[in-house]
Amino acid sequence: MSESLYFQIAETIRQRIFSREYPVGSQMPTEKELSEQFGVSRPTVRQALDTLAREGLLMRIKGSGTFVTEPKLVHESTSFVTGYREESRKKHRILRTRVVRLEVEKAENEVALALKLKGSAKVNRLTRIRHLENVNGNAPVVYTTVYVPFSLFKEMSTLDFTDASLYEALDGRGLSVVHASRRLEIVMPPANVAAGLGISGFEPTVFISSVGYMKNGQPVEYSESYYPASRSSFLIETRR
């Protein structure tokens, strides 16, 4: 089998999906129909369909057929120190944000530990729900809460983060994040998070906790973010 042949077929089908010739939710032609259409063997078609299924563009259901699915949204924040707004801008997507909560509070134990604060220290707490226009039917893509030491950013609670970028706000005050340590795990979401994401409390989420550090090594932000596992994937870059 020519490897380039099934890649070419996969690319043709991929473009038909992106152009909505094969719309999301529709059933694909059978392997036999596709093999006749492309003039190739069924194993070649099968390998092309398997490639697209691994990409999340197709779902193969035994006994029913192959269906076009909404591809998972690829997040690159696990590979680079960047804000979600900047990541969206680079991909030419329009990010919408709803601020759920913005206030000053006493740092809880886990937050104080992550930010290396004393028990009585205060933090700014910012909770946001974010979605991308015309992606996954405008469903929320992340429910995120970030904590910033009050002593470093005293006016933070007075700002409007509906459109503003937190990372840009930090940059403007000499508090730039230059390094981040992140932990990723699969968890069932708390009830308020599930409601905010518009999912069942029994649907798993990808939970990422992150600590951002300034150039001098001081922690400047700690965040907890929940992504719906069914429509999220993550790019992780490693270098030797």
Automatic annotation (TrEMBL):
It comes from the Bacteria. PROSITE patterns: HTH_GNTR (PS50949). Keywords: DNA-binding, Transcription, Transcription regulation. GO terms for molecular function: DNA binding; DNA-binding transcription factor activity. SUPFAM superfamilies: Chorismate lyase-like, Winged helix' DNA-binding domain. InterPro entries: Bact_HTH_transcr_reg, Chorismate_lyase_/UTRA_dom_sf, Tscrpt_reg_HTH_GntR, UTRA, WH-like_DNA-bd_sf, WH_DNA-bd_sf. This is GntR family transcriptional regulator. It comes from Candidatus Limivivens intestinipullorum.
